[in-house]
Amino acid sequence: MQADVLSRIREGKLWDFPGGIHPPEMKKQSNQKPIRSLHLPKFFYVPVLQHSGTAGEVIVQQGDLVLKGQALTKGGNYRQLPVHSPTSGKVVAIQPHVSSHPSGLPELTIVIETDGEDKWIERQPIDDFLSLTSGQIIQKVYQAGIAGLGGAVFPTSHKLHVADKRCKLLIINGAECEPYITCDDRLMQDYADEMIEGVRILRYVLRPEEVVIAIEDNKPKAIQAVEKALKGANDISVRVIPTKYPSGASDQLVQVLTGLEIPQGKRTIEMGIMMHNVGTAFAVKRAVMDDEPLIERVVTLTGDKIRNKGNVWARLGTPILHLLEQVDYQADERFPVFLGGPMMGFILPSLQSPITKTANCIIAPDHFEYAPPEPERNCIRCSSCSDACPVGLLPQQLYWFARAEDHDKSKEYHLDACIECGVCAYVCPSYIPLIQYFRQEKAKIQEVDQKAKQAEEAKIRFEAREARLNKEKEARTARIQQAAEKRREEVANSQGEDPVKAALERLKAKKAETATPVQTKANGEPDNSELMAQRKARRLAKQVEVSPLPDSRDITSLESVPLPQAGEGNDPRKAAVAAALARAKAKKEAQQAAVSDENVAKAEVAEDPRKAAVAAAIARAKAKKEVQQVAVSDENVVKTEVAEDPRKAAVAAAIARAKAKKEAQK
């Protein structure tokens, strides 16, 4: 395939790609004047992410003083490009700021207040890039933060790194097919020598066999300037291609120069082809030879609402409104301002958004150039979009799939191959904004794929965890089995019995010895009379403890019941009744004594109050002593009975617990 590419490019023949359009050209509005510089703004707003990749780590803080060209972020690989300070000044904030994106969503931005000195960091320019190795040049390109300035903003250092001697054909893209944009045109006219030097640096790193600069035939002055800068050199050739939109797209330009179509899902480097924009080549020269990072780029300012049209050097981070104010922009709320060309650009959500590495053109149209979008109508299946599609897709089918959110069908019909050139929407007679539908569908598919990827990763983690747990379980089981085998071997070797089994047998025998034999009646049924008597005694004792004190009649009747003596009988119920009678009798006597003492005290109180207090104290002491004597008597009786019968021990313990609980409640 690579040999075929070289043979075709050496033929000098040009091919064509299917579809495409020829929109009205408006380049003469802005390509008649050289590139100029404008005054710097008071504040710069530098987004930390300005390329296709991931943002680097911010290495400055609020309040830091920075110099022009100083790195503000750093990355860990070629996909994390650093950004640099566009001037000298002070970092006043690191915060979200409106982005130069159709959504206008805020992005992390470093705000720098200029000091007016515009002082550079220390630089080390060189005279000859041949004194550097390819690796050193790639590192310089990376440290300069250079990304593709043709629109894709893919990290240039990464492209150079992955090429790895596979590049056979190097194409420098100067087609610039958008009808309003002229930044590459003016760059080739005004800085052809530096651009050619950048091409030679790329050639030195990639070592291709052929180098071609492709320029559309509507840029005669640029073609003349580049050929003059080459000075008859045969290491780089210029190919003038027909003007046709979108001939500046990567795959379409390859097809024009070689007649080969890039297969679906493949990159040009897989066919031995590497492509860079003319602006990228110029930035490479500045980075390698002059030791200048990418802090500015050429931006086209055009449209009938701008009086002083042309191309300017715009520092990255400059508010777009600041640029427009310096070129006599006539603000009109009826007409939007576009970032990019009319085919692939978008309406700016805010003029406070900054210039970034992706910004190549700002269009401020009037009513002759811009009309409000027509109402969307139904698709009439005219196939105009399919005929004009330069990729050979079926936009009308993709439109239906996008509306139905049929992601599988969208993938089947290769929605991912759409380059979003806008040709289909341009030719649609029903004014259907096809590109908007396609972009939304791509975003939804990306979201679904991301969730599916996360689910698959979670599944892999779960399966790995299960495998690990099963492995650990098997290892534990194996260890247990090995220990059991080892024990059995030890038993077998010692000619003895199993120690575990012997211990179990001893435990079983001990339980059999200590177990109480079950008594049976004459008919063979279990005799539980003794156990029932114990339970009844405990219940009766508890009832006596919690029952209210009997009145005088009950106590008098109970006094006639003889109290059992110690060692007399073995009935625990009698012991409980005797104890209850003794307590009741003692309490009654205490109450009577208290009443008598109270009467005496009342009689004496009239004579002497001190005698009343003494009498009351004596009465309380006497009552307390009698209660203690009764309790001691009951305790002796119970202890005597317990010594004779173990069953009474249980009754006594129950009575003691009930008594202790009652006293605790008091």
Automatic annotation (TrEMBL):
Where in or outside the cell it occurs: the entry states:
Cell inner membrane
Annotated GO CC locations: plasma membrane
> Which parts of the sequence are annotated with region: Disordered?
473-529, 544-575, 590-609
* Key words of the record: 4Fe-4S, Cell inner membrane, Cell membrane, Electron transport, Iron, Iron-sulfur, Membrane, Metal-binding, Repeat, Translocase, Transport, Ubiquinone
Family that this chain belongs to: Belongs to the 4Fe4S bacterial-type ferredoxin family. RnfC subfamily.
Q: Where is the composition biased (Basic and acidic residues)?
A: 498-513, 599-609
- Gene designation per UniProt: rnfC
Catalytic activity, EC: 7.-.-.-
**How and how many cofactors are bound, per the record note?**
Binds 2 [4Fe-4S] clusters per subunit.
Please name the source species: Glaesserella parasuis serovar 5 (strain SH0165) (Haemophilus parasuis)
Quick check: keyword tRNA-binding in the entry? no
Q: Which PANTHER family match?
A: ION-TRANSLOCATING OXIDOREDUCTASE COMPLEX SUBUNIT C
Name any one GO molecular function: metal ion binding
Alphabetical GO biological process terms: electron transport chain
Q: What does the record say about its membrane topology?
A: Peripheral membrane protein
- Which Pfam families does this chain map to? Complex1_51K, Fer4_7, RnfC_N
What name does UniProt use for this protein?
A: Ion-translocating oxidoreductase complex subunit C
Which cofactors is this protein said to need?
[4Fe-4S] cluster
